[in-house]
Amino acid sequence: MTLTKVRMELARDHDFPQGSNLHGYEFTAPLSDEGHIDAEGWRRDRKRCIVRRFWAGEDDQTGHLIHTKGRSWVFHYDISTGDADNRATFNGVGVNEPGDDEAGFKFDHHVFREGEYVSVHEQDGSMRTFRVVRTIPVLT
Fold this sequence. Notes:
By secondary structure, the protein is mainly β. It has one helix at 39-45, and strands spanning 2-10, 20-31, 50-55, 61-67, 73-79, 88-90, 93-95, 102-105, 117-121, 127-137. An 8-stranded antiparallel beta barrel has the order 1-2-3-4-5-8-9-10. It has a two-stranded antiparallel sheet with strand order 6-7. A hairpin with a 5-residue loop joins strand 4 (61-67) and strand 5 (73-79). Helix content is 5%, strand content 48%.
């Protein structure tokens, strides 16, 4: 298991026929030698499993990769620059609204290697496909 930073960029779709490197996600996760997210490794290093959603024309969103009881993986945007007195906390970190979560489609089965495609069910209800463009081991 290696803690790895993964960058995914929007693949071709009806809104972006060429795809887009200005729309996507960067997240850190423990990956197995085969490139799967390692749930046991996540349990040990979950506080280091940070996600950043970048979308041209919008502020970046930052949060954590969360493993749910149903074995699915979600991006939970719980790191905020807002007023700390007006938000709940999750493991000592500010939490946005639950509707902000974005679920990875079958992330428990996908391989996160350069050139692979994965889908994310986004906040607006749309399912978008992203291409893994970079994986870099995180130095511990």
